[in-house]
């Protein structure tokens, strides 16, 4: 008996150790450890292993905050350094993970002069092409998330610029790359929605930028477990340390109007009546005015208006429906586009949180 107790304590300890090691910045994930001067030519990194902890390939530049490019002043979101990936350039780091576990990668990127910038984030054989053309924040930098299922106990994390621009100095800047194990939230009988309050999601940096959850490609794993971001644009994942969040510590901000919808498919029993409830609010980020969240459950829909003063707050929304299928798609989007009143160039929108779905005992 004592043996079993000891064993389970050990197992628990190992399990927690594995998780705690992987949550946070990768080694030199913010690029603050710089290459030796002898391994640089101007800003261009020459050696394959010149950037501590990383392996590079192609035209990679090491950028310091305040550096100029033409008449553009380059800023770095965290610390003082970042890297730039030229055409077909990539950076790679090998990390220890647990086989069969889901992980999310968070990184920040800034578009420079190229129009159609995309990044290929991969943990072979999985990869995701993330468009970084739309600017959501105002300082040029946005943080993105992507998820993968670890195929082995050790994987390569690669960020690659698949671009083919005439000027290699037009490639995107990259900073702050972090990893987080996604521990699947347990379903409860009291709520048919999984990860209902968005508490499980990508790693968040200690900044006010939030993290974008890009549209999921078919069969891709979501960095926001059980939720799919549909249509063209991203939703923003926000935390209660830097934003007003209606419930728990996390929520999503619908920043791209009708161009971004977030959905989850749930099992339902045809002819049974269900009640969907949720909170609609604002993130206390100077996003003011009339907002509307549209909720859909199969073919039923409701519009919940919310008048935002940009200072935080929320109100409940409700949609009662009779299921017609054994699976029902629950989906939310913002009817309008909003811009922050403090900088006019950051997209913002209503906040969605605490989504609940219960079935009514008797059809009414
Ligand atoms: C450094 O780069 C310049 C311009 O691209 C090139 O002309 C020069 O040969 C390079 N120097 C070394 C030591 O590689
Ligand atoms: C993305 O990168 C992975 C591996 O790093 C590669 O196998 C894949 O072909 C790349 N995809 C594109 C579209 O460049
Ligand atoms: C987050 O950033 C703020 C302001 O820069 C700082 O005061 C705080 O200590 C940081 N928190 C953590 C956990 O690093």
TrEMBL record:
It comes from the Eukaryota. Its main location: secreted. Gene3D superfamilies: Galactose-binding domain-like. It is found in: Secreted, Cell wall. InterPro entries: DGR2-like_dom, Pectin_Meth_Modulator. The keyword Secreted applies. Keywords: Cell wall, Glycoprotein, Secreted, Signal. The keyword Secreted applies. GO terms for cellular component: plant-type cell wall. Residues 1-20 form the signal peptide. Residues 24-180, 191-357 form the DUF642 domain. This is DUF642 domain-containing protein. It comes from Cannabis sativa.
